[in-house]
Design brief:
- With 333 residues, this protein is of the alpha/beta class.
- The chain is 36% helix and 21% strand.
- The strands form 3 sheets. The protein has a 7-stranded mixed beta sheet, with helices on both faces.
- The chain is globular.
- The N and C termini lie far apart (63 Å).
- The N terminus is likely disordered.
Length: 333
């Protein structure tokens, strides 16, 4: 039978747009209708989650939420931010994250992209564990479980934590993985892990000291914590686009840069052994500089091309100004 247009699978970009529309609606629900600021009933002021400092510089406000930088450690975060119970409820009930878990992550194009992405990173971390026989990995915010499945295929014993019930169900049903629908703070295990991973999930945690302290307590001696950070406050795109940058969103309460992330991990005796910058994210900046919508892909910027573009992107990554960055931290014996 020939499928009608309504029966055809939506493109990945269409589903993602639906996700962001839902997220924008949820964002608006936390604003005071008169002031258009985050409603005081929903938010709380916090000290710097990295160093505990109380001296800040406001960078900008975006749709009622304020993004500030700590004077002492340069960490960028939302302040005031949603109260912890409200943010937790948001993640449990969010339509936007339901769309992401059930339709974005389940989309063939996204699954293929995620598989290729994780395989590349696995090649990077494999050499650190080659001499081990039985290896255990804990993935914090494991989503639909593609990374854990790839690790299981390589002989690892895998465990995942995922706050989205839909994504956790997907990981269990599709791959038969050991995935718990709970937070790291509430997770109890007698098993210590050789590798603990935060694939763009650490940014959504509020109490960083408690979260990282718990992660460190579950790490073996000489174990490694991997943190992929999305939306680096040091990135070229976020510095230029500021409030127009899609990386600044109300539920991603932390905006790390390499220095602030290193300071946080070092406070728990975890040494940085590898760090690299990823994704120049130059196109949105060029569209913006030409007066266009940074994220309207149909608008083709004429600025920079060929070798000039390659050189500029190389400079961005060399100076740790990519949109994302990957870090490995090791517990010394």
């Amino acid at each position: 039978m020939i499928k009608t247009s309504s029966q055809k699978r939506q493109s990945l970009s269409e589903v993602k747009k639906e996700h962001f529309r839902a997220l924008d609606s949820e964002w608006q629900s936390y604003l005071n209708s008169k002031t258009h600021e985050a409603d005081r009933a929903y938010v709380q002021k916090v000290p710097c989650p990295v160093c505990g400092g109380n001296q800040f510089n406001e960078l900008f406000a975006k749709q009622g939420f304020h993004f500030i930088r700590c004077f002492d450690c340069t960490h960028v975060f939302i302040n005031p931010q949603l109260k912890s119970d409200i943010l937790a409820e948001h993640f449990r009930t969010s339509l936007a994250w339901n769309i992401w878990a059930n339709r974005v992550l389940n989309h063939p194009e996204q699954m293929s992209f995620d598989k290729a992405k994780y395989e590349k990173f696995i090649e990077l971390i494999d050499p650190y564990f080659q001499s081990m026989n039985e290896k255990h990995v804990l993935d914090i915010g494991c989503s639909s479980g593609i990374f854990l499945r790839l690790m299981e295929e390589r002989g690892w014993k895998v465990t995942g934590l995922e706050l989205s019930a839909q994504a956790a169900d997907l990981a269990r049903e599709r791959f038969g993985l050991s995935v718990f629908n709970q937070s790291l703070v509430n997770f109890e295990s007698t098993q210590k892990f050789d590798l603990i991973t935060f694939w763009a999930s650490l940014e959504y945690h509020q109490d960083l000291k408690t979260v990282l302290g718990k992660a460190a307590s579950l790490l073996k001696e000489n174990g490694i914590i991997l943190a992929l950070i999305s939306g680096s406050s040091h990135s070229f795109a976020m510095r230029v686009l500021r409030e127009k940058c899609a990386g600044f969103i109300f539920n991603r309460v932390q905006c790390f840069n390499p220095d602030s992330l290193n300071q946080l991990f070092e406070s728990f005796g975890l040494q940085n052994i590898y760090q690299t910058s990823l994704i120049p994210e130059l196109d949105p900046v060029l569209r913006y500089l030409e007066g266009g919508d940074p994220y309207e892909t149909s608008f083709d910027s004429k600025l920079l091309a060929g070798e000039d573009r390659e050189k500029f992107e190389s400079i961005i990554l060399k100076n740790m100004m990519g949109y994302k960055f990957l870090s490995l931290f090791k517990r010394q014996a």
